[in-house]
């Protein structure tokens, strides 16, 4: 056993954290764990780090399953569907920002800039694209980037990202016990 | 955009970090990145966190491929093989502790206890078992827990762990560019 002397990162190390969020409980747990356990210390110092909250609106088709028998949908249905997708995105972002604010309430002093980003498409592809575009230092996500229904059809987003993003990825599962 | 006030974790939050290391460059890069970028701040405060360096000696059979044509090996060969496995384990641990000491040289003040652990078996199973046994807070590993040869036969350890460990897992890839 040896001893390692350590201290917070140097002030000049400004970091960009990307947290992929969605309507799942895993997603909010992951954000909360990161915002309370890792972010405060990792962003300590006199620099400003940024936490980007990313929500990806899934394709319309996901909301049609399993009722989509191939028939056409009226403009009204499509409009209602788009409104629903926007409402879900807004709700998720409100929850995510509340999680960040609760973490802020448990902490103090250092500033982390929190930004929100809403995109469209396949979460697996969009997350990887945003990681490159923003030169993200650490990608944070729950063990599933999709809610339980969509996950069944689209598989694990976290597995895909772990294999494809270039930056370090922190995958946080929601405890099954307690 | 909102602002999040943060500060290092409370002193009572003593953490156990588990870094799975092996002879691969990905593994040492992951340990170095974590020890320099995350560990210092995450372990800041007046508490003592522990970083456990875990190396898993792979089964003898892995060292026999592709020369194992099914014939018996003499006791001398087996003894030499075991000595080689022990030498590799010792070499990996020396490199890993050097990485930690270099990170310590870049930092200051706070103490992180560094411990080493050498186990035998399939890294995928052993890592998951050790995570449970030590009540690990964060598992840290490279994008591959095996070297290039063994990986080809045993697949990605990080994928397996990401799907099976209960604790948060930080997967760090070695940059392909620069």
UniProtKB/TrEMBL annotation, chains A, B:
Domain UspA: 17-173
SUPFAM superfamilies cross-referenced by the UniProt entry: Adenine nucleotide alpha hydrolases-like
Family annotation (Pfam families): Usp
Transmembrane segments: none
Listed InterPro entries: Rossmann-like_a/b/a_fold, Universal_stress_UspA, UspA
CDD domains attached to this UniProt entry: USP_At3g01520-like
Protein name per UniProt: UspA domain-containing protein
Species whose genome carries this gene: Linum tenue
């Amino acid at each position: 056993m040896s001893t390692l002397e350590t201290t917070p990162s140097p002030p000049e190390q400004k970091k960009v954290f990307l947290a992929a969020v969605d309507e799942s409980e895993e997603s909010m747990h992951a954000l909360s764990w990161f915002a309370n356990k890792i972010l405060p210390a990792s962003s300590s110092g006199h620099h400003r780090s940024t936490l980007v909250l990313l929500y990806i609106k899934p394709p319309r088709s996901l909301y049609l399953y399993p009722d989509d028998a191939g028939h056409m949908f009226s403009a009204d249905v499509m409009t209602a569907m788009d409104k629903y997708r926007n409402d879900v995105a807004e709700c998720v972002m409100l929850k995510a920002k509340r999680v960040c604010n609760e973490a802020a309430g448990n902490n103090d002093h250092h500033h982390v800039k929190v930004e929100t980003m809403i995109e469209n498409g396949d979460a697996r592809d969009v997350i990887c694209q945003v990681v490159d575009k923003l030169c993200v230092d650490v990608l944070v996500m729950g063990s599933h980037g999709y809610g339980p229904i969509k996950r069944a059809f689209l598989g694990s987003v976290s597995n895909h990202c772990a294999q494809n993003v270039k930056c370090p990825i922190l995958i946080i599962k929601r405890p099954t016990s307690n």
